[in-house]
Automatic annotation (TrEMBL):
Residues 1-15 have a biased composition (Basic and acidic residues). It comes from Nesterenkonia flava. This is DUF4064 domain-containing protein. The chain crosses the membrane at residues 116-136, 183-204, 216-236, 242-267. It comes from the Bacteria. Keywords: Membrane, Transmembrane, Transmembrane helix. Residues 1-110 are annotated as: Disordered.
């Protein structure tokens, strides 16, 4: 087979140097000397634009954190991160109506009624009267006859007991019966003065606790004032019974003042004020 016959049977090349020259390829060869098998960039199909949303344009605009001015829901609470960092605690408290609800009660502390002031002064007066009773007892008992204080029968029993005790105590053996009784009456006067000092301290404490510390203090003061009736056992003559009677009357009147309607209303308002103030402190 001859060479010309093989050339006739060779297929026509589509690419390379043996490809047929067209106008487009000539322009490509003129630019770079190479014809791209994919054609020129102008022949590429353009990309299709994204289809528009069937719901229309975003009402919130390009910024996802913004809201329209006429939105019925107002500004979203989640907001922009920068707005979250810049928002203060007071604004969050104002936007939350649940935190603004405080217990019902007076805004200012209630004024102390006159009944409590009266009870305070009465208990202080009872304290002073108790001290006066102790001083009177110390000055009176040493010079009184035991029979006038205890009665004749009790005085004889007391005298026999003191004589038997003096016989066993070397320090009391040199004292006569009269001196021994005077010494014991002086001891009773000193004990009365010490007891009056205890009464003075307790009355002053209960005067302030019962009128300034609320319900618990009022109950404690009531118990103490009720025990004032026991002071009747400490009387030994008319004057001492008169002082004790004054102490008991002052105590009972103070007890009534502690439970008057005005006092009860004050205690309730004071409790409500404390609850409201405590709730306000928790919400800060």
């Amino acid at each position: 087979m001859s060479t010309s016959q093989h050339d006739d049977e060779r297929p026509e090349p589509r690419y390379g140097r043996y490809a047929p020259n067209t106008g487009q390829e000539q322009s490509s060869e003129g630019q770079g000397g190479f014809a791209s098998p994919y054609g020129s960039p102008e022949d590429k199909p353009r990309e299709k634009s994204a289809p528009q949303s069937p719901y229309g344009r975003n009402p919130y605009g390009d910024n996802p954190y913004s809201a329209p001015e006429n939105s019925p829901y107002g500004t979203p609470t989640w907001g922009h991160p920068e707005q979250q960092r810049s928002s203060g605690k007071s604004e969050a408290w104002q936007d939350n109506p649940a935190q603004q609800q405080l217990p019902a009660g007076p805004v200012a502390p209630p004024k102390r009624p006159g009944t409590l002031l009266t009870a305070l002064f009465l208990m202080l007066g009872a304290a002073i009267l108790s001290l006066a009773w102790g001083i009177y007892s110390l000055m009176t008992l040493p010079v009184m006859d035991p029979s006038d204080v205890m009665g004749s029968t009790q005085a004889e029993i007391f005298e026999s007991q003191m004589t038997a005790q003096a016989a066993n105590d070397p320090q009391l053996q040199d004292l006569s019966t009269q001196e021994l009784m005077e010494f014991m009456m002086l001891t009773l006067g000193i004990m009365a003065l010490v007891w009056s000092l205890v009464l003075l301290a307790v009355y002053i404490t209960m005067a302030f606790v019962g009128t300034m510390t609320g319900q618990v203090g009022r109950i404690l003061a009531t118990i103490w004032l009720s025990l004032s009736l026991g002071m009747l056992l400490l009387g030994f003559n008319g004057a001492s019974y008169g002082i004790i009677a004054a102490v008991i009357i002052a105590s009972l009147v103070a007890l009534v003042m502690l439970w008057m309607p005005a006092t009860n209303a004050y205690v309730q308002e004071r409790r409500a004020y404390k609850e409201r103030r405590r709730a306000a402190l928790y919400q800060r």
